[in-house]
C-alpha cells in the first residue's frame, strides 16, 4: 500500500503493532518523544510499560527517541514485544498474544 501524504506538515500517523493482531495508530509530531507513545500504548492495553519493548527497523526505541530521530515516516510500523522474566536475572523477549 503506498504511503499517503499528510495534510499537516508536522503531523503523521505511526502504527504500533502487537503481534500482527492489534494495530493502534497515533497521530504524532516530529518532536514527539517515544515515551509518550509508549505510555499511551501501555495504557490502552492496561499493561505496565516497563514490560514492553518497542522496536523499529531492528532497533530498540529509547524513551527520549523522537519521530524525527528515528526517521519515522507516515504509517511506519513499530513492533511491540513483551519482556518476561524466565528465571531470576534472566529475561526473554516474546511477542504479545
Quick synopsis:
With 97 residues, this protein is α+β, with helices and mostly antiparallel strands. It has helices at residues 34-45, 67-70, and strands spanning 11-18, 22-29, 52-56, 59-60, 77-87, 90-95. Strands 1, 2, 3, 4, 5 and 6 form a 6-stranded mixed beta sheet that branches.
Task: Provide a descriptive summary of the structure in words.
The chain has 97 residues and is an alpha+beta fold. It is built from two helices and six strands; from the N terminus they run E-E-H-E-E-H-E-E. It has helices at residues 34-45, 67-70, and strands at 11-18, 22-29, 52-56, 59-60, 77-87, 90-95. Strands 1, 2, 3, 4, 5 and 6 form a six-stranded mixed β-sheet that branches. The two termini are 26 Å apart.
Using DSSP, what is the number of strands?
Answer: 6
Tell me, briefly, the overall form. Answer: globular
What would you report as the Rg, rounded to the nearest angstrom? 14 Å
Q: What pattern of helices and strands is seen along the backbone?
A: EEHEEHEE
Total count of helical runs of at least 4 residues: 2
Structural class: alpha+beta
- Strand percentage: 35-45%
- How confident overall, as mean pLDDT? 82
Please outline the major beta sheet.
Answer: 6 strands, mixed
Ends apart, CA distance between termini: 26 Å
The unreliable regions are 4-9
Helix % is 10-25%
Amino acid at each position: 500500500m503506498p504511503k499517503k501524504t499528510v495534510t499537516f506538515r508536522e503531523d503523521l500517523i505511526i502504527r504500533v503493532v502487537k503481534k500482527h493482531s492489534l494495530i493502534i495508530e497515533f497521530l504524532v509530531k516530529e518532536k514527539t518523544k517515544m515515551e509518550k507513545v509508549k505510555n499511551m500504548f501501555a495504557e490502552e492495553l492496561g499493561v505496565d510499560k516497563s514490560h514492553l519493548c518497542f522496536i523499529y527497523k531492528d532497533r530498540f526505541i529509547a524513551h527520549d527517541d523522537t519521530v524525527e530521530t528515528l526517521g519515522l515516516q507516515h504509517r511506519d510500523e513499530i513492533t511491540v514485544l513483551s519482556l518476561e522474566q524466565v528465571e531470576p536475572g534472566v529475561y526473554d523477549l516474546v511477542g504479545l498474544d
